Amino acid sequence: MSKKKPQLDAAQAVQPLTGKEYDHEVHQLQIELVKLQREIIASNDQIVVIFEGRDAAGKDGIIKTLSEHLSPREIRIVALGKPSERDRAEWYFQRYVAQLPAAQEMVLFNRSWYNRAGVERVMGFCSDAQYQQFMDTVTDFEQLLVRSGVKLIKYYLDISKKEQKQRLESRVTDPLKQWKISPIDEQATKMWKHYSAARDQMLTRTHTAATPWIIVHTDDKHQARLNILRDLLGRLPYKDRDKNLAPADPGVVFPFDTLCLEDGRLAP
């Protein structure tokens, strides 16, 4: 049986937008996000959106674009730092539970409990036993959240090795990006294959029907941001939706399945 033809070409073939076109599209989508937030408040919903991915995959940019015009009282951005000694002595999920949304609230996780399956695993910040315990229990944890009424959406932002290298290098030369520099940056490309292996395990073992992973190609930042917003708006019901709102491009945003690991839709 022949392998499926790699499908990265679909994402790469998307025509780049001019600055004016991009700004117009973002503006229209942000209007829809305001409508969505009104619905979340009216319905007492609890929304969690997770953004995972390699360093420089674009998590900060999409979160800023998504939250820019929303009421800060009903949206929170969570980007937890290195765990303290107390954190390390607690149940692993405990400090994340403290950040979960109340009614009427959306929480955006810039990295999440999946740190244990990615950075901690690759960099040796957790033991094999801690990693295995996490992988064995995370889907149960997420099922508990969903059954309690939390709407959980998980995005994995995928980036090519070449694009990641360029973005990490730009952090060094751009004074406005130097706050992003961390010691782990140096290992991002050196440990590329290890991160790929950890990613593949994470996606395969933690993708479920109730809490699926959504993959996003992010080499084109503008297309990634626009299509994440379109996808998110398509997953959450709200009133007065613009009937002309374009759906997400399946060449940029698509549900994970195990064929992604073989057919070229994920960076090797």
Give the helix/strand class. alpha/beta
Task: Report the portion of residues in β strands.
Answer: 5-15%
Task: Indicate the low-confidence ranges by residue numbers.
Answer: 1-12
Global shape: globular
Trace the largest sheet across and list its strands.
2-3-1-4-5-6
Gyration radius (Cα, Å) is: 18 Å
Q: Class in CATH?
A: Alpha Beta
Share of residues in helices: 40-55%
Amino-to-carboxy terminus distance = 21 Å
What is the number of helical segments per DSSP (H or I, 4+ residues)? 11
The figure for the number of domains is 1
Order of helices and strands: HHEHEHHEHHEHHHEHE
Supply the CATH architecture. Answer: 3-Layer(aba) Sandwich
CATH topology heading: Rossmann fold
CATH superfamily: P-loop containing nucleotide triphosphate hydrolases
Number of strands: 6
Summarize the main sheet. Answer: 6 strands, mixed
Overall residue-averaged pLDDT value: 93
How does this structure look, described?
By secondary structure, the protein is an alpha/beta fold. It has a single domain (8-260), classed as P-loop containing nucleotide triphosphate hydrolases (Rossmann fold). Helix content is 46%, strand content 13%. It is built from 11 helices and 6 strands. It has helices at 8-12, 19-43, 59-67, 85-89, 94-97, 119-123, 128-147, 161-173, 185-190, 192-206, 221-235, and strands spanning 46-53, 75-78, 105-110, 150-158, 213-217, 253-255. Strands 2-3-1-4-5-6 form a 6-stranded mixed sheet, sandwiched between helices. α3 crosses α11. The longest helix is centred in the N-terminal third of the chain and has 25 residues, at 19-43. It is globular and about 50 Å long.
